[in-house]
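Hello K.,

You asked for the raw outputs rather than the summary table, so here they are, unedited. I folded two proteins back to back in the same session to keep the settings identical. This is the first:
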Amino acid sequence: MLGMFFWAFVVGGIICVIGQLLFDVAKLTPAHTLSLFVVIGAILDGFGLYEPLMDFAGAGATIPITSFGNSLVHGAMQEAEKHGIIGVITGMFEVTSSGISAAIIFGFIGALVFKPKG
């Protein structure tokens, strides 16, 4: 049990360190880094490497934004097997819709509750 927490911390920390290095050394903007991590997660899932990483690291691999890229490709590939080319598009939305919906709803509630400083 303790090993599971350790590896989640290490893998999540490594992903964060890579992101920080991209900010500091490569001088990438947050938007570029975010996009790069989504693409990396998608590529890793396309080669079948992200699922074993999630099994090994748990939340250390599912919490970072790389997991969103993984979800997009995973959903697209699953639905493509069932419904062909249409499944590629619908699969991406089906798998990620709950996370996107939650972000929109909580963002809206946050905007109602808190007043921005102007």
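The second followed immediately with the same parameters:
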Amino acid sequence: MSGGEFALLSLTVAIGAVLQVSVGFGLGMIAAPVFSLVDPTLAPAVVLLLAAGVTAAVLAREGGGADLRGCGWALVGRVPGVVAGALLVVFLPARYLALLIAGVVLAGVAASAAGFAPRPRRSSVLLAGMASGVMGTATSIGGPPMAMVWQRLTGPRLRATMSAFFLAGSLMSLAALAAAGAVDAHTLRRTALLAPAAIAGVLLARPLTRRLNAHRTRTAAMGLAVAGAVGLVAQQLSA
């Protein structure tokens, strides 16, 4: 990894961590396409490890407001999704996995822009948890399904509920990836190198969140995610 690549990844992780702390998701959506462009071996495991640390920090601060019942049903749905996602990582060629990452990002942004808002019934939470399990394990981007089904939650309750789900869900996904041989010493070294950027993002999130317009911040995050996804598609098609 060159110095320029390390700086790009660190900046991406810091921005993603700010968004993760502020709105409850965002690190995977922004980081996964960029990581896949720089080094395909970094996604999904390194992104999931970094996201688990950031969500643990959010949960420690705001965990008291989490909807634990909703999290429970979502995690029940995530179990089969995690298994399916791990199988995709094992059997899907790297090129198609990269295109899957880009597709998940673009689909998530499109659904958000369209204002799709299913009611948070038990069945929809279960299905969202399953979709999040597949997407989160295979691509490290498990946020969009849960953000859509829980978007009627606001502020600290949304962040706490999303963080409780993603911390448990990320650990499930990492366990499945480790069993499949997709977590190794290289993964842990790269995570350790990028951890300071995640910590910086967590520390910057609180003062920045008070000053930033939430709608504009989310729009900017979606724009960055789309740019990364389009760049990833272009790279794979030109390879």
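Residues 3-238 form one domain.

Happy to rerun anything if the numbers look odd on your end.

Regards,
P.
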